[in-house]
């Protein structure tokens, strides 16, 4: 009999190299425990609806009507759906060629891309071209597409922040490229120093790597920091000088919890810089319906917008998109509704605003509760969550704990997080899943558990942590930066 | 004629110039001449920016991944762009063309051509999208009772009833249970929900398998010629080699094991490790439904040669001839006594085809059997990077695999809709097949299943010369003339592969039945005048 066709040994090496901790060891262990009947609080992934956040009413009404257009013919439809939802459903259905069940244009429905462009235009005060906007099944697919277009082989490097959302490291592994890390400075609020960038590029080049692109995540994941306009300018200048395409992951642009640094898009800053630079720096910006106050992760809706990418390259990207035929149509409608929500005067406006504000203000409060809760522990230092959905506290582990981890064959933060999980049911992701400086440990949790559950969760964490420290602390000093 | 085997470019730049110099039907066109607000970088990509570095911009044609340049997908290729331009012209100036409308027969997209969705499925999906109306009394008046019940059942399987949350990366467990039960009911052999990976359509699942299996250009995948070009594109994107096996047009697109063996040996002698065999059943573009003993021989072949069997079964519900029936490869393998230890088998299914035609929803799954736990872990890991497929599509996949049963309130209407669509498809398949066979120099095999016809056109020498002069492949030349004269969009056979020197095109059977007579007469008229012009 012939050898097995698909042995582990004969798999694509790049696949084997991929790591994606967000649904890795901790998550799998948590799922096991859940099956055994333990109550688990999943804070491993930015998945708001899974933790009780309700979907906004208006988009669900519109999409339900689009899914079942026969409702629109029913005289009683007004009993269940407001008139503006009905009108919107008709509006979006008219943009499709055959309703939600037909493949759309591979870039997404033109009318919806136009609404996205208009949104970007209002946000940034510069016009945006719908032809350069591609809707995708979630922002992740868009990121993968763009990285696959850029990466030719391991000689190609992509600058990625550390800590980073591990989609980037996973995608770079999968496509056989090289990840070029640039470290964010925890003591400076996860700030970015251009000198570090230069150094990272220099090191990469000395290894023979051609650095092609730079990823920024703004607001940051897992770190939450919001880049200032000055920061963005520096980054853009840097990309210009080093001939890098800037990949701007801006999926958390609606999640801002401080007022000093509101969200400003990389594109706006680029346009503000004026020609020639504004016509030369290549930029791809990503957005999604999964985050913000919408949290519609399960829909898989996203887009990327290209700036200064040559037409022939756009065509190649279009070609690859066409192989997958089209992004899912219901999510395209979610995206349209997100960029074009109810306006003042619309029947559903007040409810929409009330629901949205409620969610955002609560997120802001939870960001504070969590940060303060972590900082109240003697061995934990936590930067404030300025934006996004996560808290990324630094856990200072005593040498005894690190030894115990080694004995258990685990990385120290994994060891800590597993113990935290077993003791409290809180499922986090160890900092090693995102990258961190050597010898410094973190965990990532989300700020998404219901507000009323937060105090108990933080208390539970503190109790575990203090007991952990009692067990392992010998007051000789902690791991520190 | 496209090269299939060992297609890696020698040099990136050469390839990119070659690619643009050849004017094949397969090429993606230059961007349409819509205005661009932003002045993009000028002209050709190799023009340098005024940045400190004088290198080409990071993302330009000569600096992007060459595999992206290499892959092709004719289904949405050049001819479609031309059609869209004509459609715009027609809209701007009605009467400017010799036809009233463009008819897109290039793509298996039933609902874009008027096919109605299955009402029960849409009812359930709408309720799952907006569950807060489930409690309202008015809902009873607008939705059927069994749709409401099914929605409740599904929502109870979703943690927190949160359809907006990421699910398990393989898909919601309860939905996979339903699908597994559906597979078992279909095949008479058990299915394990943990073998199922729900994906955004079947295509991403195919990509995942290619990614897993292809290590380098030395890894080959046996693919039917003609094939659905997802396979060739995916193999190119992942840097592997396509090893073609030719289906036999003379025997209704038959699949001969001897041909498989021959191509396998041939590839081996060239230093290629053949990893898998792709079989599309029912076939696309060819429409043949494999006979059971054929399937058994294929299973045996894969087992003997240690190949993964990739069974694209997305057209399993599209069978139009009474003498043939769909049998899944899993059923065949199990009925031969072959279990997990004997054969690695991946079956792909989709919500886009069948009688449901829900292309825009992007729902599908792969059922993966015969793999070791370590390999399954890797598949899971890759799936997890994208978190999960869209929930609505997952729900739809479960509905497709467990539709209304006899006795359910919606059963009769569901059944009528389904039978109506399938019988209409069968009629259209026959009408178009006959119409093509009546054209001079054209022969067309029967479409036993799927959604396409793939007629062979014998082009006179004059036509071939005219095509050469126009720098087009002969079948692309014919298809463009057909488009310009009739507004009907079909895909040249070179997009799917064909025996060199033969020409075909793929036409769907999807335009609504009332449009078919007009299509037939326009096509017939066009063909006659084409032959009058070019007859030797």
UniProtKB/TrEMBL annotation, chain A:
InterPro entries tied to this protein: ALAT1/2-like, Aminotransferase_I/II_large, PyrdxlP-dep_Trfase, PyrdxlP-dep_Trfase_major, PyrdxlP-dep_Trfase_small
CDD domains: AAT_like
UniProt domain Aminotransferase class I/classII large: residue ranges: 87-450
Pathway(s) it belongs to: Photosynthesis; C4 acid pathway
UniProt key word Transmembrane: no
Stored SUPFAM superfamilies: PLP-dependent transferases
Record keywords: Aminotransferase, Pyridoxal phosphate, Transferase
Cofactors that this protein relies on: pyridoxal 5'-phosphate
Signal peptide: none
Description of how the protein assembles with itself and partners: Homodimer.
Family affiliation: Belongs to the class-I pyridoxal-phosphate-dependent aminotransferase family. Alanine aminotransferase subfamily.
Full protein name: Aminotransferase class I/classII large domain-containing protein
Source organism: Hevea brasiliensis
Lineage: Eukaryota, Viridiplantae, Streptophyta, Embryophyta, Tracheophyta
UniProtKB/TrEMBL annotation, chain B:
InterPro entries, A to Z: ALAT1/2-like, Aminotransferase_I/II_large, PyrdxlP-dep_Trfase, PyrdxlP-dep_Trfase_major, PyrdxlP-dep_Trfase_small
Aminotransferase class I/classII large domain sequence ranges: 158-515
Sequence similarity: Belongs to the class-I pyridoxal-phosphate-dependent aminotransferase family. Alanine aminotransferase subfamily.
Protein name: Aminotransferase class I/classII large domain-containing protein
Pathway the protein takes part in: Photosynthesis; C4 acid pathway
Alphabetical list of PANTHER family matching this protein: ALANINE AMINOTRANSFERASE (PTHR11751), ALANINE TRANSAMINASE (PTHR11751:SF29)
Organism: Hevea brasiliensis (Para rubber tree)
SUPFAM superfamilies: PLP-dependent transferases
Cofactor (UniProt): pyridoxal 5'-phosphate
Summary of subunit composition and partner proteins: Homodimer.
Superkingdom: Eukaryota
Cited Pfam families: Aminotran_1_2 (PF00155)
Keywords assigned: Aminotransferase, Pyridoxal phosphate, Transferase
Region described as Disordered: spans on this chain: 38-58
Source taxonomy: Eukaryota, Viridiplantae, Streptophyta, Embryophyta, Tracheophyta
